[in-house]
Amino acid sequence: MFIFNRPILAPVVGLLLLVTVARVADAQGANQEVRRGQYLARFGGCHDCHTPKIMTSSGPELDTSRLLSGHPSHASLPPVPQGVIGPNRWSAATTDDLTAWAGPWGISYAANLTPDPTGLGGWTAQQFIQTMRTGKHVGVGRALLPPMPWFDVAALTDRDLNALFAYLQSLKPISNQVPQPVPPPGVTAAR
Q1: Chain centre to alpha carbon of residue 108
Q2: How confident is the model over 26-68, as pLDDT tens digits?
Q3: Which residue in 106, 154, 108 sits closest to 131, CA to CA?
Q4: What are the angstrom distances between the C-alpha of 159 and each of 16, 32, 129, 132?
Q5: In the chain, N or C: fewer CB atoms in 10 Å?
Q6: How many whole angstroms from its chain centre is CA 153?
């Protein structure tokens, strides 16, 4: 037979209640942070380049099965028209799905922002913030190339960047190894 000791039972129940309330509050706070990050991603136009598009009769629409997964690894690039892109020109070209860009900087591919290992899966929030503040991959690597407006994203607060990272980490992981940038002819690639 189990006998409850009322003087001990009340503090135990109270402690369990506090733990439960704290967990609910933490979950609500995390959900608010993810929602804020989703809002910032939409407002900031992250889908414009990082989500592949499907061409429709109304123009490009987001491929919702590949949200923020970057340039499809299996996609081949069309040839860049001669004379359109090069030094001392103001021209740029993009692929039909709007995930790869060519210009005087070479060819850049929209990164996979999902939490898959081929995307941001191994990143920390601090690495993400450093990347956005410095315009350097993982905060110390190669430069982020056009059309990535990292200098505008750098103006966000740490709180906003943490929320954006929380949203990206909440996405469905999509395995998609995006190609490395291609420098323009005559320039050596930086890592």
Answers
A1: 15
A2: 545 569 999 999 999 999 999 999 999 999 999 899 999 999 9
A3: 154
A4: 31, 12, 10, 13
A5: N
A6: 12
